[in-house]
Amino acid sequence: MLGRHVYRVQPAEEGWIVTKEGEIRARGGGAGERDILARCYRSCLAIAFEQRFREIAFPAIATGVYGFPKEEAARIAVAAVRAYMTESELPERVAFVCFDEPTIEAYRLVLRL
C-alpha cells in the first residue's frame, strides 16, 4: 500500500516530531516500496532542513508491523541519508534509533561497525 504522503511537524517535549500518514508495506518489491521508503527519508530530511533542525533521529521505518526486511531498510535509510547529507548543511547529525537486536545488527552490517 502506497499510503498518502502528508507530513506533519509537531512540537514535542525534547524537540520536534515529524510524522507521516500512510504506510510502507513490503510487497516483494513490485510496488515501488524501496523508492517510497527512500523518499520518506529524503522528505523528512528536507523538512529538517526547512525547519533548520541541527539533528534528526529515525526509527527503522516500516520494519515493524509493515514487515519491510530490516537489512534492506537499513541499506535504503543509510544511502538516502548519506546522499542527502553530502548536498546539505542541515541537519548536521542523523541518528538511527534501533529498538531490537536484529535492527541493531542490520545497521551495524550496513554501516560496517
Short account of what is shown:
The protein has about 110 residues and is an alpha+beta fold. Helices cover about 40% and strands about 20% of the residues. A two-stranded antiparallel ribbon has the order 1-2.
Descriptive overview:
The chain has 113 residues and is α+β, with helices and mostly antiparallel strands. The protein has a single domain (7-111), classed as 3-Layer(aba) Sandwich (Leucine Aminopeptidase, subunit E, domain 1). It has three helices and four strands. It has helices at 33-50, 70-87, 101-111, and strands spanning 7-12, 15-20, 55-59, 93-97. The strands form two sheets. A two-stranded antiparallel ribbon has the order 1-2. It has a two-stranded parallel sheet with strand order 3-4. The radius of gyration is 14 Å and the shape is globular.
Q: What is the helix/strand order?
A: EEHEHEH
**What would CATH call the homologous superfamily?**
Leucine Aminopeptidase, subunit E, domain 1
Order of strands across the main sheet:
1-2
Structural class: alpha+beta
Q: What is the count of distinct domains?
A: 1
Sheet having the most strands: 2 strands, antiparallel
- Strand tally is 4
- What is the mean pLDDT? 85
User: Helical amount among residues, as a percent range?
Assistant: 40-55%
Radius of gyration: 14 Å
- DSSP strand (E) fraction? 15-25%
List keywords for this structure.
113 residues; alpha+beta; Leucine Aminopeptidase, subunit E, domain 1; two-stranded antiparallel ribbon; two-stranded parallel ribbon; 42% helix
Topology readout:
Layout: E1 7-12, E2 15-20, H1 33-50, E3 55-59, H2 70-87, E4 93-97, H3 101-111
Parallel strand pairs: 3-4
Antiparallel strand pairs: 1-2
